[in-house]
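Two quick folds needed for the group meeting slides. Do the first one here.
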Amino acid sequence: AKICVDIFKPGDRVAISGFTKGRGFAGAVKRHGFHGGPKTHGQKHSLRRVGSIGASYPQRVLKNTRMAGHMGNERVTIRNLIVAQVNPETNILAVYGATPGYNGAWLEIKNTNV
């Protein structure tokens, strides 16, 4: 079956799903927006470190503790994007706002006007 953009019209609201850009192994500052440690007051090597990751009790690291690790390359859905233009001749759909992934990435577009 041929996939066409003529099912959409300007002003429609759509939900667009895709995979975000992969960032590789990212630190806590980039991945979670941590502020890091101070530059002065006796600190040497703790500018972009996490800091404490738990209390002395329960004597373990809890699940879902935010730390450094793999960032990006995950499926996300951007909802309520508005269709700006539809060109059936070139089969191009333009929307207001950002879409996940790099240029030329595959996207899943759902019409949410129904």
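Then this one, please, same format:
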Amino acid sequence: MIHINSSTFICRPIKRVFEFISTPENDFQWQYGTLASTRLPGAITGPGSCFQSVSNFMGQRIQSTFEVTEYEPASRYGFKSLSGPLQSFTSFTLEIAKGYTQVKLAMQANIVNMIEFSETILEKKMRRQMKENLAMLKSIMELG
């Protein structure tokens, strides 16, 4: 199993950061390789709602469906995969720290349908990608 933890500090109000990261349609702006994400028709905002994402990862086009598992405005947002090559759970925790919004990311993943990749190589790639995603999120939020 792959475990990834990363964090960043963003100079923007916690509510604004939460709203941005918990809107799937924003994912392509800050998540490397994400081509599009959209809520499923009729999905409400909150636990149990679902969204689909299309991404390019290590040269493969991947379509996945996710279910929101945590939704505490300005505090926690999490989701798990329901389909796709990885069984994953991703969680964002937001806190006020030193006048900034601290975003903590935690991800656990199991490889399901990516036999051609070793877990070690995949974990290294994903760790770098999550760090780059948070850097992009910080840049977008602070410049926008």
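Slide caption for protein two: The beta strands are 2-10, 34-39, 50-57, 60-72, 76-81, 86-97, 100-111.
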